[in-house]
Amino acid sequence: MDNFTFYSPTYFVFGKDEENKVGHYVKRFGGSKVLVHFGGGSAERSGLLNKVRQSLNAEGIEFVELGGVQPNPRDGLVYQGIELCRKSGVDFILAVGGGSVIDSAKAIAAGAVYDGDFWDYYEGKVVTKALPLGTVLTISAAGSEGSGDSVITKEQGMYKRATTGEALRPKFSILDPALTQTLPAYQTACGITDIMAHLYERYLTNTKEVEVTDRLIEALLLTMIKEGPRAVADSNDYQARANIMWAGMMAHNNSCGVGRTQDWTSHNIEHELSALYDCAHGAGLAVVMPAVFTYNMHHDVMRFAQVAVRVWGCQMDFEHPEETAKAGIKALQAFLTSIGMPKNFAQLGAKEEDIDELAHKCCWGDVNTGTTGGFVPLNEDDVKAIYKLML
Amino acid sequence: MDNFTFYSPTYFVFGKDEENKVGHYVKRFGGSKVLVHFGGGSAERSGLLNKVRQSLNAEGIEFVELGGVQPNPRDGLVYQGIELCRKSGVDFILAVGGGSVIDSAKAIAAGAVYDGDFWDYYEGKVVTKALPLGTVLTISAAGSEGSGDSVITKEQGMYKRATTGEALRPKFSILDPALTQTLPAYQTACGITDIMAHLYERYLTNTKEVEVTDRLIEALLLTMIKEGPRAVADSNDYQARANIMWAGMMAHNNSCGVGRTQDWTSHNIEHELSALYDCAHGAGLAVVMPAVFTYNMHHDVMRFAQVAVRVWGCQMDFEHPEETAKAGIKALQAFLTSIGMPKNFAQLGAKEEDIDELAHKCCWGDVNTGTTGGFVPLNEDDVKAIYKLML
C-alpha cells in the first residue's frame, strides 16, 4: 500500500424528508446569500425546489436561482453562474440535482473567487479556494456529493475535462433516497453503471498488497449487483435506492481507493463519447468498460480473475486463469445488459467513422500528452483498437 | 435502512515516516501550545517521542508533556491533564499512542473547557465542546483515531464507561503502520480482535435491508482474516500492518455502521472484565464474543448464517441454518485462538465466583437500567448465563 492522505469533511444527512432541513444546514455552514443551482424542470415539477425555497425562507436566508444545467454540463452556464454570484454577493452555493448540477456548482464555486478564467482549473491548475457549497442529491451516480471532483464540457471543441481539490468537497450533502424514485429506469441504470465504473477504476491498480481496499470495492460492487436490478424493476423500492445511494457515495469519496494507483481509462475513453454524442455517461461506460477490460486483461490476469471469483461468483479455473478473467468481464456485460444498458456503438448512437477523431482527442485532446489510463498507458492506436471492440 | 447523519472530518495522513510531519499538522489545525499525551516508556524507547518533539520544535510550537496513560485509562490521570492544560494555557492536545492514550486525551480535551466534572460526560451528558486534538497512532485496535468515542475507567468502583461527541473527532490522525511493528504478537492479536469486535457489534442489527453496510463490514472482516495472521506471525510485515491499520479505522469511524441499530453487548460485557481484572480489552473480547453470539444466535439465525457463509466460507446448510450459524461462531473462535487469544475465564485470569458481581455491574452499574445490549436486551440473569458459557 502506498502512503496517502484522506480527508472527507462533508456532513452527510441521509434519509427520507431530510431535504426539508436544507435551510438549517446552509445556516450551520455559514451561508447567508445563496445561489440555488439546478437542472431542468424535474426539480420544479416534483416540488423539490419549492421545498428548498420554503426551507431557506424559513431560516431567513436570501437566495438567487440559476437553472438549466444539462447532462454533461457546459462551461457557458458556469460563466453565467460566476457572474451572478459576483453581482449578487453570493457566499454559498446550493446544488439541487445530480452529478451534472453538483459539478457545475463546483465550477461556479471555484470560479467566483478566482481572478482568472475558471477553465484554468480544468487544464491542470489545482483548486485551492472556492465558495462553500452544499448539495441536495437527486440521483445516485456520480458520487460528486462526497468528492472534491468536477467534470465540465467546454462547448468550443466539446472537450470534457475534470478537476479536483479539497476546497470542492461539499460542506454538507443531503441524501434522500425517495428523491430518486421519480427517475426513469434507464437513468437509474445509468447511475448504477457509473457507480460500478467508479469501483472498477479503483480496482484496476498496479499497487500490490491492497487487500483492504480490494475488499471494500468488492463489497460495494456486490451491493450494486443485489440492489441495482431491484431499483430498476421497481422505481418505488426505497430500500434498494437507499443501499445504492450510500454505496454511490462510498464508491467515490475515495475511502476505498486510497493508497493505490487507479486506472480511469474507461472514464477517459467514455468522456469523448458523451462529449461528441451527448449520450448518458453511464450508458457510455456500459459500452466502454467491457472493451477496455478485454483489451487490458492480459496486463494482470489474476486481478481480473479475482474480481470474477469474488464479485461475480465465477468458478476459478486454476489451469486457465484467463478463462476466469474473461468470464468475469462477460458477467459484468451481461449484468449491464440485464438492467437495460447498451452494449455497442450502434445502441449508443456512436459512429465507426468518428473513431479516429475520438481516439485522437482522448490521447491528445487539449491537455493530454499522447497516452491515457493509469493501469496500462494506452496510446492512440490502442484507444482506436478499443473503440473498434465496441462496434 | 434508517435515517442517519455521518460526519468524519478527520484529516488522515497514512504511511511510513509521516509522523515526522506532526508539527506541520498541529500548526495547520491551529495548535500553538500543545499537551503531548502518551503512555508508558515504549514511545520514549522507540524514539517516537523524540521525533514528535523535534517536529514540534522545528515549527516553533511550545508544548508540555504528560505520560503515564495505562491500558484501560483512568480518571485520575485525566484530572491531572485537565489541570495541566488550564495552568499552561494549552490550546491543542496531541495523543501519541494507542486507543487508551487517545481516549484519555479526548477526556482531557473535553474536561479542559468544561466547568463541571468531566465524568459527567461518561454518565450520559453529550460532549459539544472540546479542545482540538490530533493523534499519532501506535496500535491498530480501538479505532479512536477516527471516532468521536472515548472510554475511561473510574478508579473508585472500577466503572468503565464510554462517551461520544462530534467535538471529540480528531482534527488529524497520523497512521504509520511501521510504528506498530514494535508491538509484541499478543498485543497485535488483541488489536485484531478489538477491530473484529467493532465489526460484529455493527453487524448484529435488527434493521432490515442494510446490504451496503453488511457488505462493507464483511469486507473488513475478510481483510482481518487474511492480514491478521500475517501480522502476528511476522511483526515486520509492513503491508499486513498497513491493511489492518486502514481496516481498523474504517471499522470504527462508522461509515459501515450507519443507518442501522447496533449491538455492543460484547463490549459492555467485556468492559466489566477488563475493569475488574485489568486484562487486555481485546483478550477479553475474544472470550466474550463466542459466548454472547452462542447465547443470542436464535434471535436471528439467518444473520449468523450469513456471516458464516460470506465471511468464514462455511457451506450453507439449507435444511439446518442453525448449524451454519454455529459453524460461523466456531470458526471465529478457532481464528482467535489461532492468533494466540484466550478462550475462557481461566486463561483470562477471571474467576467464577465474581460472576454475580460482574453481571450486576454490567446491567445496573452506575448509569445502566437493568439491561444491556442493542441486538437482544439482556437482563442480569442473561448476562450471568453468558459469563458461565466462558468458564
From TrEMBL, chains A, B:
One of its GO terms (molecular function) is methylglyoxal reductase (NADPH) (acetol producing) activity. The keyword Oxidoreductase applies. Its cofactor is Fe cation. One of its GO terms (cellular component) is cytosol. PANTHER family: ALCOHOL DEHYDROGENASE YQHD. Coiled coil: none annotated. Signal peptide: none annotated. It comes from Candidatus Anaerobiospirillum merdipullorum. It comes from the Bacteria. This is Iron-containing alcohol dehydrogenase. Gene3D superfamilies: 3.40.50.1970, Dehydroquinate synthase-like - alpha domain. The lineage of its organism: Bacteria, Pseudomonadati, Pseudomonadota, Gammaproteobacteria, Aeromonadales.
